Amino acid sequence: MNGFPEGWFYIKSQTNNHVLEPHCLSVNSGARIVTSKQRFGFDADSQLWKYDNGYIVNKASGKVLDIEKGYIRTFHRTHLCQWDRKPLTEASNQQWTFLPGGFISPTAHKGYVIHLHGHFYRSKHDICQILLHQIKDEDGRKQTWYFEPEQSQPKILSPPIPKEYPEYFINSIKNHY
């Protein structure tokens, strides 16, 4: 299946293990794609993706990974965003392939790959911009990715009740749950 796993998965940077997600957890078309620290459980849907007939689909929004404005800008930054799925005949900016070495590339532009932008290791922020960039021979680590399958949802456990509370208080809490 073109190198992508089946089912929902995280797309993780081989540089810092952060994962792709829409900025600010947005479910809107046009939201730029960034990386941030991986989350698990019910809070992870915005970071989960699946491969579907060339499209990379976000679990939270149902939108697909897209080249912002629909084309590669050679003299300006080309950002990635999420957008409504276009018909296959109009979706060259939404079709993706996984190349040997861990690169994710637009199917129509295999000289370009998803690129982690900036000096994230110097940044005080947990997020990093994602761009489409030409494949680099040097420092290609900012351009390589791997997949991690979705984790099963953790059980929600009630916290233990401290013993220093009076017995009647503990019983009232136990009866409440």
TrEMBL record:
InterPro entries xref list: Ricin_B-like_lectins
Protein name, UniProt field: Uncharacterized protein
Organism annotation: Rhizophagus irregularis (strain DAOM 197198w)
